[in-house]
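User: Predict the complex with magnesium ion.
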Amino acid sequence: MLRLEHVTMKYPTGVTALNDVNIDIKKGEFVFIVGSSGSGKSTLIKLMLKELEPTQGRIVINGRVLADIPRKQIHKMRREMGVVFQNFRLLKDRTVYENVAFAQRVIETPTRFIGRQVPAMLTMVGLGDKYKSFPKELSGGEQQRVAIARALVNNPSILLADEPTGKLDPKNSMEIMNLLEEVNKRGTTVVVVTHNREIVNLMQKRVITLKKGVVLSDEQRGGYLDEN
Ligand code: ADP
Ligand code: MG
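Assistant: Here is the predicted structure with magnesium ion placed in the model:
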């Protein structure tokens, strides 16, 4: 469902962020991608979202080669992927409800569906009673829950999270990871980029370790390697 074949990404500056990376993620998997700063994790996420084109190799998502998708159809492909970032990226001047509804409005979901799906999604992330709040009235953990609700409201098959707990304390980090695990149990493929050693070791999921743009290890029920 999500495959990188001999993917190399060299930026115009000359930096090779990824070098001959091969990764195969099956439908329904929960995968951590770890590695020290600069190892190529965010580049990997950007390639999967087709925000960047690899210099070599190819990326296949749900049976489609990303390079073959015409510009006009990129938005359809992105609907298959929800994405969450370290800094939440919520709209400051919109309520929690509007932040989640926004993802549906851009794809022109009829209002009656939005009125049903947004509350259901907010309840799923544990924020059913906060729909009228503004982002600044929420804790970091709650803001990330809103971002997760927004990422999932269009029912993507894959959720990509780039350091989703990077700005959270240990307790909130664990709660967000538990939420991502629950999302995964409901059938969404989940890919989490993280630095959080404790969580990775605790969760016992597949762990892909990047080092300087190369896959150093890829293990089922792995741990966070010490050299990282
Ligand atoms: P990580 O997310 O693991 O910290 P990145 O994917 O952000 O790593 O970066 C990998 C390497 O690519 C780093 O050396 C970084 O400086 C470089 N890099 C990232 N983005 C760009 C860019 N837009 N232009 C040039 N080099 C970049
Ligand atoms: Mg990064």
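The two ends are 28 Å apart (CA to CA).
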